[in-house]
Amino acid sequence: MTVAPSAPDAARIDAARARAPLAFRKPLCHRLIRALFWAGSAALFLWCLIAFDITPQRIATGLSRLGNIFSFMFPPHVWTTWREFSEVLKGLGETLSMAFLGTVLGALAAFPLSFLGARNINRLPLLRFSTRRLYDLIRAVETLILALIFIRAFGLGPLAGILAIAVSEVGTFAKLFSEAIENTSRRPVEGVTAAGGSGLQAVRFGVMPQVMPVILSILLYNFESNVRSGTILGIVGAGGIGFLLSDRIAAYRWDEVWSIIILIILMVYLIDWFSGLIRSRLVGATA
What we know:
The protein is mainly α. The chain has helices at 7-19, 28-51, 56-73, 82-117, 125-139, 143-154, 158-182, 187-194, 199-238, 241-250, 254-286. It contains eleven helices and no strands. Helix 7 runs antiparallel to helix 9 (199-238). The protein is flat, with a radius of gyration of 28 Å.
């Protein structure tokens, strides 16, 4: 809390400011750096507006078209035949399956790698450093880019989406798992070792019981994130509900687009709620 100076103190400060005004100002170099920063930010902002042709007329035209699109979305489409609705359900199921398989495959590949990157397990600095840089290398490539590459290699469909999610998650899971392993307590490990257990048994009975709830919580959180990613991957041709959504947008069937978006929101909401419930149980059980 800032305390206001008393009247005599304020008078003395004013007198000192009158005698040496430069002592109460920031140094010239600091003021120049601040002015250059704001000038550079303003110049970059203006350059972006000009380079990207962001004009009020263009914004107004875009908003008008956006209003037309929203007007075409209402009322939402209601599927009247099971054949039409089953196609949407199949797309939702494919997206869920892509997220599930991608998450599981990524976790299976990341689990052994995480031990190589954990400081309390791997005592070889060079190997640990190389493994951690491998995590960074994998995580640097976006899932969408991986999907486009796998579509070229394996063709259109959910397989490309599953592989994209799995490869992307290897780096993320390995990093998060290794950090969870590093944060475990040494006491259970020392207890197993003191009882004559081997190094492998120390990991099995000393580390794993501590780290498994955290790993399961990470898996659930990333699974719900991958459901959302699976929708986007479908738009570029990796199957699932995103592929169906892209098809309806290309056909200007906006009322059906809005109905599919509502179903996607409901699906993500239910998964988020269920995943959060399980995570709270897991964390609560170990708290």
